[in-house]
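User: Just a sanity check before I run the rest of the batch. Below are the structure tokens for the first item. I only need the designed sequence back.
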């Protein structure tokens, strides 16, 4: 059942199913591992970017396109991805997602020109989209009503941790061997997660998922959709800004004479620290009244740290500050929860993540063109702008929430 009671029965536990997996925290551990591989694989192209450019003769616009292609499938798969889980079950879709990540990673590592590398990137990205949608559903099923915010906070930081892991290791692997070997490492991580999910993860009984036959493909009101779009645009802008910093700040340090490994490590502080600060920021927001103000201050500080980096300030210190100041931004992803009903939650988050993936696909392409024309600093100025954009979205969201609230409801 959701939110309490026994979550697994003896007959739901397959042979070799670890006793740790009887608990929802064990399931959360599997989710964190699987989602870490997504960030790890996503960051692989940016982490070995100089080697790809040199070996395949790519422009930085093409490199930026490769970065964005990983997230492009989300534009069309985010909304139906949740519905696929309703139809076939979360375990089947998770395994399919990890399988596509493994196959796509192999194609990227074997590619000799831009086209096959881009094709592999699309395949692995499609798998990551299917995986992400279902992992959020798995956590919600098991923690609804009991430490859900804590569990989601832990789940969310697995993405930046995976990115940090890519920044910290893949450049060194590529320098010591080849960029293809670095890609193989990320592919093996997805294959490992696939094996663990195959043998250790079991779905909740069908009754715990609700009456699947009664689920509708589209279940959201016009008011909820408008508010979700505002929140989704803010979340897309915020994440695109952070992604551009993590992807192109190493390039700027290379222009200033750093080695690829040193550049990735310096920038990696931002991702590493955010893995600790974002859950703490979320816990803080749950305990204060003026959470939008705290979120806005965090966004402004994050953008300022990005600007200092672009201006030539101390790279490691700027990355550390960014990783600290980003702490309260989880308040942006919480916005849909203020307006979506239980009935519209699946459709609403599908719409929310469609906007997220659209922004994350377009931003690196734009940044790549800017880098080709103005160097690495140009991409960081775009990142700082995107980090500032959600600040005015917060009061807009609240104004629409109050104005469009049905009679008798209380706006947050």
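Assistant: Here's the designed sequence for the first item:
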């Amino acid at each position: 059942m959701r939110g309490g009671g026994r979550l697994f029965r003896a007959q739901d536990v397959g042979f070799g199913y670890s006793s740790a997996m009887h608990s929802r925290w064990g399931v959360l551990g599997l989710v964190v591992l699987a989602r870490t591989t997504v960030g790890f694989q996503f960051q692989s192209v940016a982490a070995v970017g100089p080697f790809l450019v040199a070996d395949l003769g790519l422009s930085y616009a093409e490199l930026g396109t490769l970065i964005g292609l990983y997230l492009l499938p989300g534009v069309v798969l985010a909304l139906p991805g949740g519905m696929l889980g309703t139809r076939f079950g979360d375990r089947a879709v998770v395994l399919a997602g990890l399988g596509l990540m493994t196959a796509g990673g192999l194609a990227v590592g074997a590619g000799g020109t831009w086209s096959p590398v881009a094709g592999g990137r699309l395949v692995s990205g499609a798998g990551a989209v299917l995986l992400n949608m279902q992992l959020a559903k798995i956590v919600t099923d098991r923690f609804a009503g009991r430490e859900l915010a804590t569990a989601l906070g832990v789940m969310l930081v697995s993405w930046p941790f995976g990115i940090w892991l890519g920044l910290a290791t893949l450049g060194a692997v590529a320098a010591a061997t080849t960029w293809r070997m670095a890609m193989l490492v990320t592919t093996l991580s997805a294959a490992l997660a696939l094996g663990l999910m195959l043998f250790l993860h079991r779905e909740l009984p069908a009754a715990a998922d609700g009456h699947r036959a009664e689920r509708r493909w589209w279940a959201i009101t016009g008011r909820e959709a408008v508010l979700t779009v505002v929140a989704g645009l803010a979340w897309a802008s915020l994440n695109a800004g952070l992604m551009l910093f993590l992807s192109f700040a190493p390039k700027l340090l290379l222009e200033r004479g750093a080695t690829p490994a040193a550049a990735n490590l310096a920038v990696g502080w931002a991702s590493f620290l955010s893995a600790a600060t974002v859950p703490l920021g979320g816990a803080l927001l749950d305990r204060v009244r003026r959470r939008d103000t705290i979120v806005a201050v965090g966004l402004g500080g994050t953008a300022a740290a990005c600007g200092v980096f672009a201006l030539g300030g101390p790279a490691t210190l700027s990355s550390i500050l960014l990783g600290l100041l980003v702490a309260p931004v989880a308040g942006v992803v919480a916005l849909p929860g203020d307006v979506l009903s239980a009935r519209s939650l699946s459709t609403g988050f599908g719409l929310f993540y469609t906007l997220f993936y659209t922004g994350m696909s377009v931003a690196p392409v734009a940044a790549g063109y800017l880098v080709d024309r103005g160097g690495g600093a140009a991409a960081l100025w775009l990142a700082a702008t995107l980090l500032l954009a959600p600040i005015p979205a917060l009061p807009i969201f609240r104004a629409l929430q109050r104005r469009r609230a049905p009679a008798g409801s209380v706006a947050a």
